[in-house]
Structure formats: C-alpha cells, structure tokens
Amino acid sequence: MANKDIEIEIDGIKQTFTLKRLSFGEKNQLEEEATDIKIVANQPIVKVSMSKLKELSILKSIVKSSYPINGIGDVQKLPQEAGDKLFEEFTALNGVDVKKNV
Could you read off the pLDDT tens digit of each residue along the chain, which spans 102 residues? Predict the structure, then answer.
C-alpha cells in the first residue's frame, strides 16, 4: 500500500505526517463508523456525519506524525488549515469523493 509524506506548518513549526492508503476493508469500516441508521415508522433514515467522516479519515490514515496525534480529540484540535490539508491529501491518496458518498 502507498504512503505519502506531507509537510504542514502548525504554530510556525513544520510538521511531517505520513498518511497511508486504506485497504478496502478499512475504507468500508470508516464509512460505517461515520454513518448512523435509524428506523422511523418502519423506514430507514441514513445520516452520514461529514465531520466524523473527515476526522476518522485523518486519524485512520496517519501512520506516523511529528505532531502528537493519539486519538480523535487530537485531530479535532488541529488548526483548521492543517485538518483541511490532511483531509485533502487523504481524499487524493484514497480516491474518495465525499460528495458522491453523501
């Protein structure tokens, strides 16, 4: 599987993140974790949490990082520009079209 190194400046310091390409099963699990299905009046209501999908995508794709990422809370605390860049790189590496999946 392919890995990609990305440099992002956070608080004036260049940080390096290594992202991996997820396997088919990992990608399916990620989508399942970000999806909530409820039954209302015998009808399934499917809701995909875009924020959860983005955060879990970053978390599950990081192989190593010079910036401390130990859980979903660390991903949520990233500066917006860093989180956006990591998710952009994740989608490019994993061939994910978020708009198509919603």
Answer: 589 999 999 999 999 999 999 999 999 999 999 999 999 999 999 999 999 999 999 999 999 999 999 999 999 999 999 999 999 999 999 986 655 544
Long-range residue pairs from 74-82, CB within 8 A, at least 24 positions apart, any chain: 78/10, 79/10, 79/11, 81/8, 82/8, 82/10, 82/15
Q: What is the pTM of this model?
A: 0.84
The kind and range of the H/E element at 42 are: none
Alpha helices in the chain (DSSP H): 24-33, 50-61, 72-76, 80-94, 98-101
Residues in contact with 100: Cβ distance below 8 Å, sequence separation at least 6, in sequence order = none
Residue type, 80: Q
